Amino acid sequence: MDVYEAVRSRRSVRGFLDKPVPDEVLTRVLTTALRAPSGGNLQPWRVYVLSGAKLAELKYLVRERITDGDTGDPPQVLPYPETLPEQYARRIEELGALRYGAVGIAREDRAGRERVRVRNWDFFGAPVGLFCYLSEQMLPPQWLDAGMFLQTVMVLLRAEGLDSCAQIAWGRYHRSVTEIAEPPAGHVLGCGMSIGYADPDEPRPAIPRASLAEVVTFRS
After folding, report:
1. Distance of alpha carbon 203 from its chain centroid, rounded?
2. pLDDT, tens digit, 9 for 90 and up, residues 44-84
3. pTM surpassing 0.85?
4. Beta strands, E only, 64-210
């Protein structure tokens, strides 16, 4: 698979097969992804990969919290600005309509939407979970670096025939993630990621992207 096809075929997959991911594939992907650009060569990301018993333990902890009515931890990082310009708010709304509509959940069905959302904390059935942390001292440029690293991981996973879903939703239960991942003190959870082989029966609605003219200006 060439790099263009890997980028084009990368999607946020929300349904995975119960099929193990070989350790050597994960090692190859993550080793190569370390070549991602990094300002000042800081390489500010700290990555934790969970599978097997540790993955099951984390899912159990969060499932128990949800069952007990725990709605989550105080956010370390807000996922979006409190007030979004109209064009961005519209995109979020369109995404929700497509995502929930694909599984037959109406907009007004809050309980149904929550049942779908809860699947985040089961990694959508994926056999591998990845978490990316940064030191709380890091600034927006270092968060950009971490994003480039994570994008590189996701593209390389496609090259290996795997799929993924980057999940800011894990920030909602970041204390449980930290309990299992055990990052150094003073580190903030950037996001989680589900990794595995996509379930071909899981609905995958086409998500529209902005046109080139909307986001790119050529000047010469």
Report:
1. 18
2. 999 999 999 999 999 999 999 999 999 999 999 999 999 99
3. yes
4. 128-135, 163-167, 187-196
